[in-house]
Design a protein that fits this description.
By secondary structure, the protein is mainly β. It has one domain. It comes from Allomesorhizobium camelthorni.
Length: about 130
């Protein structure tokens, strides 16, 4: 019997240059999972450096922060988290080829922070 394996690759979710945050700002990123044919898997995204909930992740520049969320759907109604979040992961069955998922990002309207370069690091976990 062949050994099951999976690999993952992703492009960053970039919100670009933003001014005043008086309306929501949406963007997308891409994630590809390649698993052995027939292997069932789930894909989870952790809470980032702040270990936050999927819709309350934090982009940070020092002590200044911007709240943002990552979602599984284009309506941004299904938060994408990890196994600790109810229905928080994506799932699939391997085909031996890369299977693509879109990561939908949103910065909700909020008080605008000081200008800066804000970032976060998300860990992708594929469980199979």
């Amino acid at each position: 019997m062949a050994q099951t394996s999976c690999s993952v690759s992703a492009t960053g979710v970039s919100f670009g240059t933003i001014g005043i945050l008086d309306t929501a700002v949406d963007t997308t990123g891409d994630l590809a999972v390649t698993c052995t044919s027939g292997a069932s898997y789930t894909v989870g995204l952790n809470g980032g450096l702040a270990n936050a909930q999927p819709t309350a992740r934090l982009l940070a520049d020092g002590a200044a922060t911007i709240t943002y969320g990552l979602y599984k759907d284009s309506a941004r109604s299904q938060p994408w988290g990890d196994e600790t979040v109810s229905n928080g992961t994506q799932s699939g069955t391997g085909s031996g080829q890369a299977q693509s998922f879109t990561i939908y990002g949103r910065i909700p309207a909020q008080m605008s922070p000081i200008p800066g370069v804000y970032g976060d690091t998300i860990t992708v976990t594929v469980t199979y």
